[in-house]
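Q: Here's a chain of 586 amino acids. Please give me its 3D structure as tokens.
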Amino acid sequence: MKSTIAQLKSCFEQALVTAFGPELAGTDPILTPASNPKFGDYQANVAMSLAKRLKDKPRAIAEQIVQQLDVSEICQPPTIAGPGFINLSLKTSYLEAQLKSIQTDPRLGVEPTSDPKRVIVDYPSANIAKEMHVGHLRSAIIGDCIARILEFQGHTILRISHVGDWGTPFGMLIAYLREAYPKAMQTTETLELGELSTFYRQAKKRFDQDETFREAARMAVVQLQAGDEETLRAWKIVCELSRQAYQVIYDLLGILPVIERGESFYNPLLPDVIKDLKQKGLLVEDEGAQCVFLEGFTNKAGKPLPLIIQKSNGGYNYATTDLAAIRYRVKEDQAQRVIYPVGAEQTNHFAQIFQVGRRAGWITDDVEFVHTPFGLILGEGGKKLKSRSGEALPLRELLEEAIAYASADLEARLKQEGRQEMAAFKAKVNQVVGIAALKYADLSQNRTSNYIFSYDKMLALQGNTAPYMLYAYVRVQGISRKGGIDFDQLSAANPIHLDDETELTLAKHLLQLDEILAEVEKDLLPNRLCQYLFELSQKFNQFYDRCTVLQAAEPQHTSRLVLCDLTARTLKLGLSLLGIPVLERM
């Protein structure tokens, strides 16, 4: 189904060409939803944008456009307001026909993109041998959400986790494994997963305090890079312990499977990065190190800032590995868009490696590399969310606490309502609601902003929260149960009648899903989808409070059931794109 905006844009293009000539073909009519209901449903600002070009007053241009604008099948006659805004109000008959066309469509009228791309989303990129903490949450759920939406839009998605599994820190971990857990060299069963973070801290303490141990760690790095069999076995033990630990977290969060490519994957490719940059004349030796001097970045002295690609001792760093990944993703993965959901503190790093990638010829106009920065999760008082011990809060602890809060909330509601439920029902509701509340609270924020973490706010049944959305879905399922209605069996032959103002408002909102997803596809801001779903739930509740459904006479009875079903299906689809499942009962 062609979206309403797409249809209107086509009508505007014909009007512009007829009124002013073929040179205006493809002009954007600048259509936006009207901010005030009295102006209709959409406003076009094209007259103002053309005033200078056509050397005429915007209102006069708007009048000429309206004279040629044929939107009679979609809208009431257009009106002109102010200096030249063109206001458009959708016809009830058009809304009814559009709803009818999506009634049996599993995609709810959202057409796949006409320009599918091969897209890499780089997430959640945990660090091997370190326990995942609250700082890893946003990358995981924002990356997963973006991947889901782009995949639904019709793009081919490669979910790639660029994990830190190589380099100097592993010498420290391998040396400590040999020293403290010699039997673990033969099996992974010797170490308990719960000791992973403790293991890292103990190794770091030894490294900081003992020169002999530091030398053993440095030697382990050399042995690892040389491919020593015993050292590689120790490295694999540490990596596997980490994978098992963070897979538990991915499963709790409902993160879809990712392809893991650690820094070790790119290690053999680093010499080719140096070779390419040398051939392009970009490498400059500075104090023994091989560097690229960056344009637009300066040091404290005001001189061009060098990005070190190869250290004076011949070693490499994170920037080298990231450049190898850029090169590989273009040349081997054939990616056309690469998205990095990473904290805002890394903005300069990405600007630097993207600059080098462009200057090296790896990033061209045919491929887009984009950093999608996000802010911090803050505790009360506006400080970084930390554990009671003052360290970064372990992510698993955060998730388990969310489920515990949901459990306490459910028990209070059951007691208030005098309900008895089975343990299995309560366990499922607690996990779905707890994790959904946590994820939605994050995704509903503009990702570029910091936000204050609050279990009470995220679990509220009122407001822009996951429980509010889930409850709206459950309400529709309650209609189905109470009336013995099988929504799948609703006749597609029955007409849809929109009589009440709340029905019209709900119908218009249901038909905007494709527009919202197109915006998220472009700007990668999941909060737009969250806001859409919140407003959908509000409009549905207003409709349900005002209009009888089960007791309504025909044709309103079936028509309102269709509205309920389309609302529930839109909520279910929208929440699934956020990585949130629905519940039939709460």
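Q: Can you summarize the key feature?
A: The chain is about 50% helix and 10% strand.
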